[in-house]
């Protein structure tokens, strides 16, 4: 019995010694070699993922997905340029070859002058002469045949006009002066309409030299005197200005044999300008400061047989004058003037 127990102890000691020898003889594991990981049983795969129960909503979004896992752990502080206090930031370098889609202003091509700098450009051209704005007149204005329309074009002076201009309309602008050279070479002008400008001065002979001019309209300006007029004038309209009797030349209308319409209402006249041409048909002097008249203002007191059949429209209303005080002044008229008789 004792012999059997001894043999078992020797056998057990031998097995233990053999295991120890094998363990010490095994080659060491390489450093840096990753241990082979067994798949975790708790990781979900396509086979065991319960998709119907995966309910993603705004309320459970933070519970299901950990947003902190998506934060970048990269430190960008090293890339930022360091700026010391009291110094300027280093200039940034622009990328070469990058084409910008932003429109950049360019300088307009300069045109060579059509005339010398000391002379004013004239001539018809394709679209008219060059204006102060640097554009042809017929681009700033509208040219239709021989008519030029420059209404409300913010003009400060008369633009260079085509030589064939017959009718000029330059109303509602900022023109303050009429120069003698503005119409000097225009030999076919029949009508000039400069209504509602700032005209306060007209050079001598600016209109007198226009032998074909029939209508001159200067209403709603700042004139204090009437300009000299050509003998061809038929209609003069200078309403709503600041014209005084001292600004009308003596016998200014005597030689205007073709004048038919003389409208000077809403001014500062103190008396009726005389003598009036024989062919006059309409005389508007309402809203002035006329207080009296002469018995020969309209009629020839020495010729009671003379009748002025043409002069049918005389307006003297809104003047401080009592027309009933001058009964001998109307005997040659086909119709009494309009005004106060009291």
TrEMBL record:
Pfam families reported in the protein's UniProt record: LRR_8
Keyword Metal-binding carried by entry: no
Keyword Ion transport: no
Gene Ontology CC terms: extracellular matrix; extracellular space
One Gene Ontology biological process: articular cartilage development
InterPro entries for this protein: Leu-rich_rpt, Leu-rich_rpt_typical-subtyp, LRR_dom_sf, LRRNT, Mimecan/Epiphycan/Opticin
Alphabetical keyword list: Disulfide bond, Extracellular matrix, Glycoprotein, Leucine-rich repeat, Repeat, Secreted, Signal
Source organism, top-level taxon: Eukaryota
Subcellular location: Secreted, Extracellular space, Extracellular matrix
UniProt-listed PANTHER family: EPIPHYCAN-RELATED, OPTICIN
Family: Belongs to the small leucine-rich proteoglycan (SLRP) family. SLRP class III subfamily.
Protein name in UniProt: Opticin
């Amino acid at each position: 019995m004792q012999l059997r127990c001894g043999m078992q102890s020797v056998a057990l000691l031998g097995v233990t010694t053999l295991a120890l020898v094998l363990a010490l003889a095994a080659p060491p594991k390489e450093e840096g070699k990753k241990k082979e990981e067994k798949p975790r049983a708790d990781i979900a795969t396509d086979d065991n993922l319960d998709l119907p129960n995966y309910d993603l909503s705004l309320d459970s979004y933070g519970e299901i997905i950990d947003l902190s896992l998506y934060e970048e752990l990269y430190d960008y502080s090293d890339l930022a340029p360091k700026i010391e206090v009291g110094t300027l930031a280093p200039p940034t370098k622009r990328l070469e070859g990058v084409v910008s889609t932003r429109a950049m202003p360019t300088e307009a091509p300069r045109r060579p002058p059509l005339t010398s700098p000391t002379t004013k450009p004239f001539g018809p051209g394709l679209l008219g002469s060059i204006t102060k704005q640097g554009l042809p007149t017929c681009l700033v204005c509208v040219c239709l045949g021989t008519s030029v329309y420059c209404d409300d074009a913010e003009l400060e002076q008369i633009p260079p006009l085509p030589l064939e201009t017959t009718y000029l309309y330059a109303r509602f602008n900022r023109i303050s002066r009429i120069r003698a050279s503005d119409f000097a070479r225009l030999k076919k002008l029949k009508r000039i309409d400069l209504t509602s400008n700032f005209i306060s001065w007209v050079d001598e002979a600016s209109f007198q030299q226009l032998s074909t001019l029939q209508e001159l309209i200067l209403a709603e300006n700042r004139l204090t005197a009437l300009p000299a007029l050509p003998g061809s004038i038929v209609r003069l309209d200078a309403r709503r200005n600041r014209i005084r009797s001292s600004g009308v030349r003596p016998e200014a209308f005597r030689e205007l044999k073709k004048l038919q319409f003389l409208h000077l209402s809403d001014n500062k006249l103190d008396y009726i300008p005389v003598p009036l041409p024989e062919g006059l048909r309409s005389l508007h002097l309402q809203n002035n400061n006329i207080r009296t008249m002469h018995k020969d203002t309209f009629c020839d007191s020495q010729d009671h047989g003379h009748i002025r059949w043409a002069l049918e429209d005389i307006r003297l209303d809104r003047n401080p004058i009592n027309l009933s005080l001058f009964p001998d002044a109307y005997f040659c008229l086909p119709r009494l003037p309009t005004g106060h008789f009291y």
